[in-house]
Every structure is written in C-alpha cells, then in structure tokens.
What does this fold into?
Amino acid sequence: MSQTNIPQQMQQVFDESDCLYSLDELQKAVAEIGREISDELADKNPILLSIMNGGLVFSGQLMPHLNFPLQLDYLHATRYRAETSGGDLDWLVEPSIEMTNRIVVILDDILDEGHTLKAIIDYCEAQGAERVYTAVLLDKQHDRKAFKGFKADFEGLIVEDRFVFGFGMDYQGYWRNAAGIYAVKGL
It folds into this structure.
C-alpha cells in the first residue's frame, strides 16, 4: 500500500463500513459497566489494568464512572501488530504495580477469541493477584473462544462475528478514533 494512498483507502474502508453501535450507545454501555464494577469492587482496593492500545479509550471513558479509591496501570501485550488476524503473543510493557494479594481488573476493548486476555489473566495470577476480573466493552459472538464458555466478568455489548474497529480498536492501525463501533465491509 502506497503511503500517499493510505488516507483515501482508509477513508473508503470507513465510508463502506456498517455502524454497529453509536457513540451514545457505547457511552451508556460504559456507564453500566462502571456501575457494575462499583457495586462489586468499590471496597476492595482494586488495581485496574488497561490493555494497550485497544483498551485505552474504553479505560479512559470508564474511569469517571468509578467513584472509589483504585489504582490504574497498563500493560501492552498484543497478537495483532496492526494486522487483521492474531499471531504469537508479544509482551511489550508489563504492569508496574505490585499485584500480590490484590484484586485486579483487566480492561480491554473486545473479547474475541480471548487468547491474549487468558494469557494476561494467567500472568496476573502468577504475580500473586488474589482475584482477577475482566471487563470488556465488546464480546464477539462465535465458537472460537480460547476455552469453552469464556466470558468476561463485566461486559458492555455483544457484537457479531465481523472485523470491528472504532472506540479504541483499529483497522490496520487506523480508525481507533472512530466515534462508534464499525464493521469492515466483507470482513
């Protein structure tokens, strides 16, 4: 792909995509997740771990809905590297907060197959976390989960089995800034 054609090609992807959820629908879902996390964990002194880059927007939107003491950290582990399908897990940044005997909530954009999320859960448990919760904005519906019945503890919206982008999720490194959830035409 020529660098000069990228903006036009990415605009075409956006223009041809289907909007699955509006910004308003996403903000309502994030507020509901915030209420659920607050009800469950407000008195537990949790560590929230945002998974970069996809979880950045979700985490930032979620924080104002959590009106209790917490610590926030991040990690960067990826299987995608701006591609549309995953490969081996690549750890780029590990969390800096000590997790021993702490409640940890992993924040991510989407539960697709869940291989990355499962590896991060295992990592947190190996670091001594008392309990690890997961919170995702989207749960993609299909039968390819990392293990049977894999669900997040807190989830916002269900999405069909298509390649989605927006609200922190990318398409080939672009459109994390899209104010909604969009599905790529044909994917």
